[in-house]
Amino acid sequence: ELLSIPGLFKISDIAFVLLAVPLVEDLATRRFQIERLRTVFFGPVALIIGVALFNILLSNLREGVPLSLGFRIGRRYVFYALFFVAYYALTEPRRLEWMMRGCRLAGAISALVVMAVFFTGSEWLSAGMVTGEYPTAAEFTRPYSPAFPLIILAFFDSLAHTLASRGRTHWLTVATLGVTAGGILVDLSRNGWMAVIAGSVWLWWVMRRGGLFPRWRAARLALGGLVALMVLGIFAAQVTDRGLGDALQVFGDRFSSTFADLGQMRGTFGQRIDILTTRMHLMSEEPTTFIWGLGFATTQVRAIDLALAAEVGMGDFTLLGGENGVATILAELGVLGLIAVAWFSWLVIKRGLWLAARARDPRGRTLGPA
Asked: Is 216 a residue whose pLDDT tops 90?
């Protein structure tokens, strides 16, 4: 919202237009090549879109959900069609390089905004972003940034570049790596932290297979990360008049709470399990919904009925939450949609591993694991 003009456009609108520029350019100059759209990803993407469109219609026929409302909720699946537009551009090395530069820049800017919101609580910077307070660190404002996946993408691309560089790494790449790492840390997202840990292990494994992993450079990066963490902790302590240990404890407590939540089935982890079991119970009342799903807005409609019947507040009824991605896909698209998303994800991982280990181009071997 920060860079939008109310009533005219948002940044996401510009992003969608920019994705189409290479395609329009080639159509205008008669350089369009249909073979660039031939990809193994066509099957799962087409299935995701097909099931989504079917469920938009099904929600209308079965529950009376207006088509406009169904499309507004389900359009995130239809947006998978943009994958082909982006894929067309990414098959050309020059455009791929520009796309990744843009992602790194946007990820770094987003990370800077996240850190600024965390330390200052600025309402101007967090415009349109959901924010909250972490219970044991009320001095900080936790930003729930919608750009978090972009920050992680920029982090791993910069990390892969830094590790794979045979000579001196460009200062912009190192700066992007540091800024995005800081953004991931202060976001306080345990999912994000686990993604970085698991992703770093994946990066180490595939770069070793491709003969690209330099141990000494990795050790220097780890040492640099610890120093940066100390500096960030000192800065946090100065901002909040707390000691260095207290400031760093914010991150330590948040990380350690992950394992307590897992062991005791509580917190957001317990809530996500509850959401999954509740939705599966709801679907078991009509077994065919396991195939197609409940559709869009249907879960909200039924949740309200169930909440009223149970005499609990609708805000307390976890069926309304979207915290569990698996439960959301299962309820909206059924097993067919879940298989399609898993199929797509597996192909992405498989292609990344192939690139990292076998691509002749060093740029491809760097981008693969990222």
From this structure: no
